[in-house]
Amino acid sequence: MRRSARGPGRWIALAIVLAVAVAYAPVVRHGFVNFDDPDYVVENGYVRRGLTRAGLAWAFAGFHAANWHPLTWLSHMLDCQLFGLEAGAHHATSVLLHAGSALVLFAALFHMTAAPWRSGAVAALFALHPLRVESVAWISERKDVLAAFWWMVALYGYVRYAARPTWARYVAVLLAFVAGLLSKPMVMTLPFALLLLDVWPLRRLALGPRVWLEKLPLLALAAAASVVNLIAQQRGGAITPFAVHPLSARLANAILSYVAYLGMTLWPTRLAIFYPSRQVLPAWEVAAAALVLGAVTAAVARRARREPWLLVGWLWYLGTLVPVAGIIRAGDQAMADRFTYLPHVGLFITVVWGLGEWTAGLRPFRILLPAVAAVVLAGCVATTRVQLRHWRDSLALFGHALAVTKDNAVAHTNYGFALLEQGRTVEALDHFQRAVALRPRYAKARLNLGVGLGTLGRSDEAVAEYREAIRLDPQNATAHYDLGLELAERGRLDEAIAEYVEAVRLEPSNAKAHNNLGVALARQGRLDEALARYEAALTIDPGVAAAHNNAAVVLERLGRPEDALAHYREAVRLTPEDARAHFNLGAALDAREHAAEAIGEYREALRLAPELADSHLALGDTLAKQGRGTDALAEYRAALAARPGWAAAEARAAWIIATAGAAGTDAGEAVRLAERARDATDGRDPEVLRTLAAAYAAAGRFRDAAEVARRTLVLARAAGLQPLAAEVARHLAAYEAGRAVP
């Protein structure tokens, strides 16, 4: 690098960082989207926990989401460790990685060519072009920006190695390449790109076989990563068989995509998150695209000796697109904006160096070309910000996709799900049905249609759609899980358990599936098995409050009250705004005679949900045990206001009035309440009848009180309620003596 060039280099680097900051500033206000983000972050128990040993093992050992990219998982975990589920911070991490890639690319080109302005132009175009938005603004595509960052680091390391070859520098290149492969296997084309750089600008081919031999370890790593990723995609059911998309159709689509990306580079409008495959690709379009590619390739090849940057950049573009050209097809998209992330570098090298050399001797262009570059880059920033608006949430993202594409079943499905999340179920159903009409064999559309139907209470239709989704995609763990939920709701527990078991077999990291399997097992009385499932859910994600609560309930039934109490406390810690969690903790504390704490939890539950009748009743019981009859009666009345006609609350209120003589009450009210409770329980509840007898006695109706007490004795003894029977026997003696409850 020339010493005189270092000054502008620093300013160019700063300008790139500032431009990226301006272009991507809005993204920190964006949320997660419903396409892949739940699976990658929001609902992924291992990721949400942050960096843990279990998460580390899971990241390296599993093929979750039909991919093997452990370093990407660790980066998501680190974000969750630092920021929780604050989406803006996750977005900021991606922007920083993207800016870092642009800076390292600039440094590598600058060191190779000593051309700061051209290197800066390539790096700026790479950083600011609107086709970058998908990779940067989509949290699930962290793998793109992370892998690209390591690609650029390896590139820079190779430049330093070429300048002064040492084993240390070569190992640094290998390590950066490994990090890239562990982030996303798309970087497997790095050895090819390095060979191109050996042609120009490094001009190392004269070194002979050494240039080729030093690429062999890189090629071996790339091959190994390719095999592992292929296995991951096959096991995840992501690879489309040739029976669905023949090789001829894949080649035709690849040719069209290469040319389409060129057009999108020049005029980046109508960009979408998903471009559906066309059923028919006209032969004339394919032929015309092939002619364009052939003509450009021939033109740059003819000029390769005098202008090698043209061929190097063009072959970089063609070669780095090969892994995502769709020959081995993972997914249903025809193409994707994110696929241009690394290929664009080669294209911009061709354009920038080509224009720079062609206009170098023309005086007017010394001023005009920088001005044009500034306008183009400003346009990129503006267009990128416009494109970012569509990524602010799922409705905007898929609404835009529907506006700029045709027959897009994926967009209809995800737009419908966004509507469903907002409670707009009827509208959502319309989009799910459109998706099914466009692609009857699209399992996710069937699955979401089932969710919508279930939300509307159309259970039979929902079950039918879930079963169809499973028939189309037997490996779809979510379909099995949702079918299990619907069957459990209908009381078909054996069938529900079978679906939950299949869901956790297919997706062992699904904490919700483990939890709901536990719920179904507990409903069948299989408490030990249920507890094991709750523990499995909490091993995956200790933040599942429902699993803590469910585990506590089972532990109480298994006679482990202290363990249960710990889980209740954790449920409250995780969801402090959940009134039911506070109520459950209060009940557990009450059972252990921690009355003061229990009262505090009941009151907090009622602060959060004043209509929670259970908490009013339980608080009343605790206050009554403390001899605070008037306060207890107020809570029983509040319970009745929240749940009119509730026999338990009527009976307790009647007991307080009949036995404690609370101010402002009379025995007649006690009788009315107790008789209503008796009628509601068909006269078969001995506790209610005990209260009715006491109310009659308080009203001076001792004969009626004694008669009811005798019937209560029979029921209590038949039910084995000996303490209650003994108490009623004492009351009966008092009634027969003409006295109220002592």
What does this structure look like?
The protein is mainly α and 742 residues long. Among the domains are: 3-239 and 338-389, no CATH class; 407-475, Tetratricopeptide repeat domain (Serine Threonine Protein Phosphatase 5, Tetratricopeptide repeat), CATH 1.25.40; 491-573, Alpha Horseshoe (Serine Threonine Protein Phosphatase 5, Tetratricopeptide repeat), CATH 1.25.40.10. The mean pLDDT is 96. The protein has helices at 6-24, 37-42, 45-48, 53-61, 70-83, 87-113, 116-128, 133-137, 142-163, 167-181, 190-199, 209-213, 216-235, 247-266, 283-302, 308-320, 343-358, 365-389, 394-404, 409-421, 425-438, 443-455, 459-472, 477-489, 493-506, 511-523, 527-540, 545-557, 561-574, 579-591, 595-608, 613-625, 629-642, 647-660, 667-680, 686-698, 702-718, 722-736; strands spanning 275-276, 333-335. It is elongated, with a radius of gyration of 35 Å. Helices cover 72% and strands 1% of the residues. The chain has a two-stranded antiparallel sheet. Helix 1 packs antiparallel against helix 6 (87-113), helix 22 runs antiparallel to helix 23 (459-472) and helix 24 packs antiparallel against helix 25 (493-506).
Comma- or semicolon-separated keywords:
742 residues, mainly alpha, Serine Threonine Protein Phosphatase 5, Tetratricopeptide repeat, two-stranded antiparallel ribbon
